[in-house]
Amino acid sequence: MDDSPSVKNKKEVKKEALIWRGENYKRWGKFEMAQKTYQSVLRIDNSDTRAARALDELNEFIKAVSGQSQVLKKIALQKEVTRADIAVLFVTELPLNKIFRKAPTKNAIKFNAPGQPVMGAQKAPLVSDLAVADVQDDHWAKSYITQALEKGIMQKFPDGTFKPDQKVNRAELAMLIQNFLVKAYDDPSIETKYFGGTSPFADVLNTSPVFNAIMVVSTRGIMPGMDDGTFKPLSTVSGSEALNIIRTLKAKF
Fold this sequence. Notes:
The chain is built from eleven helices and no strands. The protein is mainly alpha-helical. The chain has two domains: 5-66, no CATH class; 71-122 and 167-251, no CATH class. Helix 1 packs antiparallel against helix 2, helix 3 crosses helix 11 (239-251) and helix 5 crosses helix 8 (142-151).
C-alpha cells in the first residue's frame, strides 16, 4: 500500500470533499445520501473522527425529526440551539396542561394556604409579566416564548429581556429542566437534593451553582454524562440533542 505524502494528501482532499458533500446532503434533507457519504469517508479512513461524529449526529437527527413538523425539523438542524428554540421544544413536546394539572403525589402533599398553587397549578401571570422587550409580535417563536413564561418554565432576565437568540449550553439546559421538574412536582427540595454530595464528573465541582441541576438531570437519565467521565457543562447543545433530551423528559410523565 502506497502511503507516500502525495497519496495521503489526495486522501485528505477526498475526505474533505466527501464531508462537505455530506453536510450539504443533510442540509438539503437527503439524509440517506448523507449517511452513505460519511460512510464512504470511514471506508477511506476508519479512524476519521469527523466523519464518525457527523454520522452519529446525523443518526441522532434522523431519530429526532422522524414524523415531526417543519418547525421542529428546523430546530433539529441547528448546530447550537437558542433560548427561543428551547421554548418551542418545551411547549410543543411536553403536555404542559396535563402535567401542571396533576394531583399531588403522596410525597408531594403538603399544606397550602388558600390561593396557593398545588402541584404546579399556578396563578396566571399578568399580561405585563409576559411582555418581553426583545421579542416583538412578529418574532417566529413569540407564542411559544409567551407560553413558556406563562407556565413559569422559563423566565425573563432582570432587564426584562428574554434573549431569544442566546445560545444554550448543557449546564443552562440542565437548570431549565430542573426548574421545570420543581414546578411540575411542586417540590422545591429537588433544587437542593444533591447539596454536599460528590460529583461524578471530572469537570463539575460539587460547589458549582449548576452542580445540583446537573445531578438531577444525569441521575434521572435525562441528560447523561459523556463516556470520558465529563459532563461538558459549557458545551452548546445541538438541535437534535435538545429534541431528544426533551423527549426523554417527556417520557418521565
